[in-house]
Write a structure and sequence with these properties.
alpha/beta; single chain; 12 strands
């Protein structure tokens, strides 16, 4: 089956008692066993059966199995946020005295996790320009435990050569962890690019219109210790497992993911082209534009679509605030890939607690507005931005 069909028609792990077409929400916390022996086997993983909903739930398992079928993963773990997916994965890999190689071009909370939280546990973070593979390789040493990257950075929209980085890392026996939130796994194969573990905020495209918070760890099994620690240690000890209510909503979102994403990506491309015609806008950054410096690399790695995030630069922060305040249709809100188009000034919000020097090092500009493009008509979106600039 093609991916869009798999997203809808994957059989249940066990037949539903009432043959419901949509997996029911199993709100149960605990499960009955026929005898003590079966109970012991379930708790120790000798048989495949749920034992307690903090670590396994039928509704969540169904969601995980659909993602597993779509990605070809060895293990899929659904958690309660994208940051939970990132933190659980890193905690499964890092150790005191080890180091992680990554970029300054990261989502703000990911950057803080690596440079502040993990540093208190004796983990070093080495920051590097990931577009320079030779420079990255020079940072590798015997204590490097992983390479962490975003396949398209937020909000800089930088694209790295994932194949080159994974080939280099694997020569040194180092796993590569990639945040792939910005391009859905229905559009490309991170596994084929050499990524060992994907981490995703399923709050974004998958949830289906910002219905719920969630995160996914997609482990391809190249480094068995990672999956072992995730399933037998992090899942039990950190308590971040997805709730059945969220899994139900995100399974429904998964069924329409491909259709919604294609509209959003097409809208983003059309809007980006039209925004280039507005003189008050100093720069339009969208990887789908043919003159974007990452366009060809993105095509070769992620296919014909380039996500649904655009950034625009105006002459000043004051001009950015004025535009945001004059919007009538587009919402002033955080989050990405809602059905609605959203606008935010990253420097004063998402990165607002970083110093000016830190923001400058991360290439977070006071002049930038980030747009998450939704499902509305492109004419309406363009006209709203145009009137906001002219007001």
């Amino acid at each position: 089956m093609k991916k869009q069909t798999q997203a809808i028609h994957l059989p249940y792990k066990r037949r539903d008692a009432y043959d419901a077409l949509s997996m029911p929400i199993y709100n149960a916390v605990a499960y009955e066993f026929d005898n003590a022996e079966v109970m012991a086997d379930a708790f120790c993983g000798r048989i495949d059966a749920p034992d307690y909903s903090r670590v396994e739930n039928p509704t969540v398992t169904n969601f995980e199995l659909r993602v597993k079928a779509l990605t070809g993963a060895e293990n899929v773990i659904a958690l309660n946020s994208g940051m939970a997916a990132i933190s659980n994965t890193l905690f499964a890999i890092v150790e005191q005295g080890k180091n992680v190689i990554t970029s300054r071009h990261l989502f703000g909370n990911t950057f803080s996790l690596l440079t502040s939280t993990l540093s208190r546990f004796g983990v070093e973070t080495k920051l590097c320009d990931l577009t320079n593979v030779d420079a990255v390789e020079k940072l590798v040493d015997d204590n490097t435990c992983c390479l962490f990257l975003e396949v398209m950075t937020n909000p800089q929209l930088e694209v790295v050569d994932v194949r080159a980085l994974t080939e280099m890392a694997h020569r040194h026996g180092i796993p590569v962890i990639a945040d792939t939130t910005i391009i859905p796994f229905t559009q490309f194969s991170a596994k084929d690019l050499g990524v060992d573990v994907e981490v995703i905020s399923s709050t974004k495209y998958i949830s289906g219109g910002a219905t719920s918070l969630g995160g996914l760890i997609i482990d391809y099994g190249r480094f068995p210790f990672i999956g072992n620690r995730l399933l037998k240690e992090m899942l039990f000890n950190l308590g971040s497992y997805m709730t059945p209510q969220v899994a139900y909503m995100q399974t429904l979102g998964l069924e329409t993911l491909d259709a919604r994403y294609r509209v959003q990506a097409a809208n983003a491309l059309a809007l980006a082209k039209r925004l280039c015609t507005l003189k008050p806008i100093c720069n339009v950054n969208y990887v789908g534009l043919e003159d974007n410096r990452y366009h060809q690399l993105s095509l070769s790695q992620y296919g014909e679509t380039a996500g649904a995030m655009i950034t625009i630069d105006l002459e000043s922060q004051e001009a950015c605030f004025k535009l945001l305040n004059n919007l009538k249709l587009i919402h002033r809100a955080t989050n990405l890939f809602d059905n609605r188009t959203l606008a935010i000034h990253p420097a004063s919000t998402i990165f607002g607690l970083f110093s000016a020097e830190e923001r400058a090092a991360m290439d977070i500009l006071d002049t930038t507005i980030r747009l998450s493009v939704g499902l509305e008509d492109v004419d309406d979106l363009f006209n709203d931005i145009k009137q906001a600039l002219e007001a």
